[in-house]
Amino acid sequence: MSYIMIALAWVLEFFYVITLNYGVAIILFTIFMKAILLPLTVKQQKSMVKTQKIQPLLMEIQQKYGNDKEKLNQETMKLYQKYKINPMSGCLPMLIQLPIIMALYFVVKEPIIYIMGVGKGDVWRLVFAIQDWSAANPDAFAQLLTSLKVDSLDALTNNNYKMFGMYEIQIARFLHENQEIMNSHWITETGQIYKVINFSFLGLDLSRTPDMGAILELITGNMSGIDSQTIALWSIPVLSGVSSFATSKISQATQPPAPPKKDEYGNEKPNPMKTMMIIMPFFSAWLAFTLPAAIGLYWTISNVLAIIQQIIVTKAVDVGITDEQIEGEIVNAKENRKKRKKRK
Asked: Which residues lie closer than 8 Å to 183 by C-beta, 6 or more apart?
């Protein structure tokens, strides 16, 4: 995971250096990652369309071997092999994206290490620099402690400065707001030039985590802890949920409809995809409420790009299976079944 974080940090830092805008850097980073994963995405969508195309044949096999699980699995695999379908290919892009999102979380959560480039062995210099600066700026220093929810900077030094990582994103924002701290001799004597990060994007502070609890306060009429930034940040989870729903909806619309599956009594089985289409948007919104807004922005842009990819790939990719071909195989299967019945 550490190698993934270092690689992602380098890419995100590169885009931030050339744009000097954290939000734009996140967007360019998302486009870059989508481009890297494009071959897998195309393969996934091609496999999904193929699988939907052969659904009638799969239903025929289920009707024929429904009582023989071993034979059913064998014939199903033969059908997949015949049409060169890998049933696991649809999961691969998601399995790859999961560690990327986890690594990106730590890169965003620890920007001083991964974006500013301060080594873990040098974070104590920032603590000392802030302490020296606080003597002339007690009010601003008090606000920092309040935002960190600690009584003193000693909390950052616990366990050989390992606790520092819990507060990095707030400290990185504070350093941008008070850039003179970086002129401290504790920093300059290293000979390194560390860039501070501006987390502002379209009026949103991407370092902050959207406050779900503030919604309940708003409903109950308690406006004391709610500011314009709190309300503006709610747009990230909302867009995350809406874009997730749109991705599922368009994915469903751009694929051939699968025939309904029925149980042994002829009743239609529940469609798990419809259930997922309802659950996933709420899960995406909830996730965006629990992580820094930068992660929610990444997820939203990723969903938007996925929608564009689905539309383009579905129209451009030829899966090599025609409806006539499937219908012909179904007719042959039914005729063979009739012949076997006559023989009996």
From this structure: none
For residue 263, the model assigns a pLDDT of: 54
Do the beta carbons of residue 197 and residue 115 sit within 8 Å? Answer: yes
Q: What number of other Cβ atoms are within 10 A of residue 58's Cβ?
A: 18
pLDDT in tens, 232-247: 888 999 999 999 888 8
Whole-angstrom distance, CA of residue 174 vs CA of residue 147: 10
Residue 13 and residue 115 in contact, taking contact as beta carbons nearer than 8 Å: yes
pLDDT of residue 37: 81
What tens digit of pLDDT does each residue of 145-175 get?
Answer: 888 888 888 888 877 777 788 888 889 999 9
What is the average pLDDT across 310-328?
71
Length reported for the chain:
344
Rounded Cα distance between 141 and 144, Å, is 5
Residue 101: what pLDDT? 77
Long-range Cβ contacts of 196-200 (<8 Å, 24+ apart): 196/116, 196/172, 197/16, 197/22, 197/111, 197/115, 197/116, 197/172, 197/173, 198/20, 198/21, 198/22, 199/22, 199/172, 199/173, 199/294, 200/22, 200/23
Residue type, 113: I
Could you write out the DSSP letters of every residue in 235-275?
A: HHHHHHHHHHHHHHHHHHHTSPPPPPPB-TTSPBPP-HHHH
**pLDDT beyond 80 at 277:** no
Provide the token pair at 143.
């606000």
Which SS3 state, helix, strand or coil, does residue 335 take? helix
Number of neighbouring beta carbons within 10 Å of residue 96: 13
**What confidence score (pLDDT) does residue 94 get?**
65
> What pTM was computed for the model?
0.77
Quick check: 105 pLDDT over 70? Answer: yes
Cβ count within 10 A of residue 324: 8
Cα 253 to its chain centre, rounded Å, is 22
Residue 164 is given by DSSP the state G
Side chain identity at 273, as an amino acid letter? Answer: M
Residue 150, token pair as written in the block: 């600690």
